[in-house]
């Protein structure tokens, strides 16, 4: 998300400063949008980025505890930088939520930068490969030119300008939805691989007529009837993800030519698939788990 946001939302001048260090892990970044008080309702975010005309800087601030950034992946321990979504304020006007590049840790000692408080949100039920953090900012200053300004900008007089179509910001958020859609079949297939292998190796009860061997778990109809629908769903999801990936690539290509015509249909497909696929995935994984006996 960090790299993708730079690629899509930052200007050419910002690309020249941030892309190479990011590719070589000299800048390790996170995508800091969600706050304790607001997740789905992005327009309700409360973190502020107020332009200071005296120094030509933005002052990033967490006005209350609800505005603390909460959940960003890798923020708690691993990141040096964050793309922070905050309300742009200039000359008393609010220009809505915009993205800003903020250095959050000192590259020499990895301590939080002055005015930045960081932490880990704590243990989660799953997804342990990712730590999720929180951040509170107290009057953190960044140069005016560190607002990601390919599509919106604040000029040296503090005037806000829209350079392109603001829907591009939503296009970046759609990427995560696409990743969740594509991740579903991968995780479900992984669980099924374990469960099916277990079921064709493990035997319980001598119930096969004329045989002294015990019956494989998979040869019980009750077992098959639980696994088969999820196997079919995993294949169906895989088949659809390649279609959705191609459509997303085509949408982003067209957007780069200022054509947003695919965005509407893409939004509906991704929203529907995200819910359906993640539902099938978590139910399927739990079904496999429950049907591996104590090993599950
Ligand atoms: C593992 C993990 C990683 C994350 N990584 C990041 C990250 O890197 N960066 C980042 O910025 N954020 C991240 N997030 C935050 C994530 O984007 C938010 O959790 C998400 O946007 C939902 O916001 P919320 O948790 O505040 O839920 P809320 O907005 O409070 O919603 C709670 C529930 O209310 C219901 N609801 C809400 N609005 C409506 C509505 N309009 N209609 C009907 N029902 C509704 C839904 O059931 C929803 O699930 C992460 C979250 C998790 C769990």
From TrEMBL:
InterPro entries to which the protein is assigned, alphabetical: ACOX_C_alpha1, Acyl-CoA_Oxase/DH_mid-dom_sf, Acyl-CoA_oxidase, AcylCo_DH-like_C, AcylCoA_DH/oxidase_NM_dom_sf
Keywords, ordered alphabetically: FAD, Fatty acid metabolism, Flavoprotein, Lipid metabolism, Oxidoreductase, Peroxisome
Main location: other
GO MF assignments: acyl-CoA oxidase activity; FAD binding; fatty acid binding
Keyword flag Flavoprotein: yes
Annotated GO biological process: fatty acid beta-oxidation using acyl-CoA oxidase; lipid homeostasis
Required cofactor(s): FAD
Residue intervals of the Acyl-CoA oxidase C-alpha1 domain: 170-296
Localization of this protein: Peroxisome
GO cellular component: peroxisome
A Pfam family the protein falls into: ACOX_C_alpha1
Stated family: Belongs to the acyl-CoA oxidase family.
Protein name: Acyl-CoA oxidase C-alpha1 domain-containing protein
Record organism: Strombidinopsis acuminata
Lineage: Eukaryota, Sar, Alveolata, Ciliophora, Intramacronucleata
